[in-house]
Design brief:
about 425 residues; alpha/beta; six-stranded parallel beta sheet; binds adenosine-5'-diphosphate; binds magnesium ion
């Protein structure tokens, strides 16, 4: 995949309308009060927005928010399948679920952060959006309603894409800065690019430069640290990184399936029996490719999955029947830290243990510390990994923390990302 894409700096936007796809999919308070509990994603979009406005563009921003169901019938069907009483599934209830995912709070917060008015459209491509887009002047910004209120959004309906592009007019430009959504081929993330010249904003530019650079042309040795809960969710990542990395380090819950595949006993640890052969295949692939594959030597174990469980150290291949592995042990930490020390690039996806429990956070903390101390380019991909690094206080010591959870995983799998592929090549 070509990661060398045109950016906002490569196009002239002065006096033009720019359709800007952002990732404003912010967490909202569960009580339906419309309170945004973390505005990080809105803040992250500010540099691109400010740049476009400064250049004299009129910005038509859009994003999805949550997972609204735009069809009442489908909504009612899904609720009924979840065991809800069909008689209670009224149109009013459905409308409430949509109301809770309106963009009003986002427009308000964006306006506060920018220190200027943000015009909010009542629809996505309807009469209100059209009238407001037509009246929008250079240096002004508006926000469309939740793109997923349109049935065609997730289907990547060309009619919807065309209508969205139409809001920017004949000489309009499409800018995508929604890295968190580039793995989805939706109308607003990919479809629109068929109708407007398409370039990246600064967020996507940085992701492509650093993560794309690390995958396409890494400073070596390239060390990949893979952990998290399941082998099954990381198969693509392990397989792809075995093609390009010099060293692969395995930790977290997935390590026990590897240990079992190698003939170890793993007690009650997280185990995916369907993936034992796959683990052995990956071990064989590593040998064949000359990639060093490091597995835990020792583990901190517990009698139960609980924050108060007493940590007990066991050798990785001989975990007692009534114990589960919760973290990597001190010998493993030492080996993993040493492997990171002289790396040129480190890509890390997946915590080394159940870091949410302080007694089992040491492995993740020690690896984060080793990354903070190395001179290597350090890249964190994956939602929980990013959260762990932030929670442990190492966020500002990393070269790059990817902003997209699912998108960064698919990036590391070497998959083509529709929202990136659709942008103009440099
Ligand atoms: P990411 O979001 O970074 O891709 P994952 O979602 O794959 O990471 O995995 C994160 C989760 O893995 C964390 O919630 C962590 O508690 C869990 N985990 C790590 N080690 C273990 C383990 N030994 N047993 C059970 N869960 C684990
Ligand atoms: Mg996760």
């Amino acid at each position: 995949m070509n990661y060398n894409k045109k950016t906002v700096k490569d196009v002239d936007v002065k006096g033009k309308k720019v359709l800007l796809r952002c990732d404003f999919n912010v967490p909202m308070a569960k009580d339906g009060s419309g309170v945004i509990t973390d505005d990080k994603r809105i803040r992250a979009a500010l540099p691109t927005i400010q740049y476009l406005l400064d250049q004299g563009a009129a910005v038509i921003a859009c994003s999805h928010l949550g997972k609204p169901e735009p069809s009442f019938d489908k909504w009612a069907k899904k609720q009924a399948e979840k065991g809800k009483d069909p008689a209670s599934l009224t149109k009013e209830k459905w409308e409430k679920t949509l109301e809770a995912l309106c963009m009003e709070p986002v427009a308000k917060r964006l306006s506060e952060l920018l220190g200027r008015d943000v015009v909010l459209a009542a629809d996505v491509v309807g009469p209100d959006a059209q009238a407001k887009a037509a009246a929008l002047q250079p240096g002004q910004i508006m926000l469309l309603q939740n793109t997923r209120f349109e049935k065609g959004e997730t289907k990547n309906d060309p009619e919807l894409a065309k209508a969205m592009a139409g809001l920017a007019g004949a000489d309009g430009v499409y800018v995508s800065d929604a890295f968190g959504a580039v793995h989805r081929a939706h109308a607003s993330t990919a479809g629109v690019a068929a109708y407007l010249p398409a370039v990246s904003g600064f967020l996507i530019e940085k992701e492509l430069e650093i993560m794309g650079g690390a995958l396409a042309n890494p400073k070596r040795p390239l060390v990949a640290i893979l952990g998290g809960s399941k082998v099954s969710s990381k198969i693509g990542v392990i397989n792809h990184l075995l093609d390009i990395a010099d060293t692969i380090i395995i930790g977290g819950g997935m390590a026990y399936t590897f240990a079992k595949a190698q003939g170890g006993s793993v007690g009650t640890s997280l185990l995916e029996s369907d993936w034992l052969d796959y683990c052995n295949d990956m071990i064989a692939k590593a040998k064949e490719k000359g990639v060093a594959l490091l597995l835990p030597e020792d583990n901190l174990c517990a009698a139960e999955f609980s924050a108060d469980a007493v940590p007990v150290l066991h050798s990785a291949m001989t975990i007692p029947d009534d114990m589960m592995g919760m973290d990597i042990g001190p010998k493993t930490i030492e080996a993993y830290a040493a492997a990171v020390k002289n790396a040129g690039t480190v890509i890390w996806n997946g915590p080394m243990g159940v870091f949410e429990f302080p007694s089992f956070a040491e492995g993740t903390r020690a690896v984060a510390k080793a990354l903070a101390e190395t001179d290597a380019i350090t890249i964190i991909g994956g939602g929980d990994s990013a959260a762990a690094v932030a929670q442990l206080g190492f966020a500002d010591k990393m070269t790059h923390i990817s902003t997209g959870g699912g998108a960064s995983l698919e990036f590391l799998e070497g998959k083509e990302l529709p929202g990136v592929a659709c942008l103009l090549d440099k």
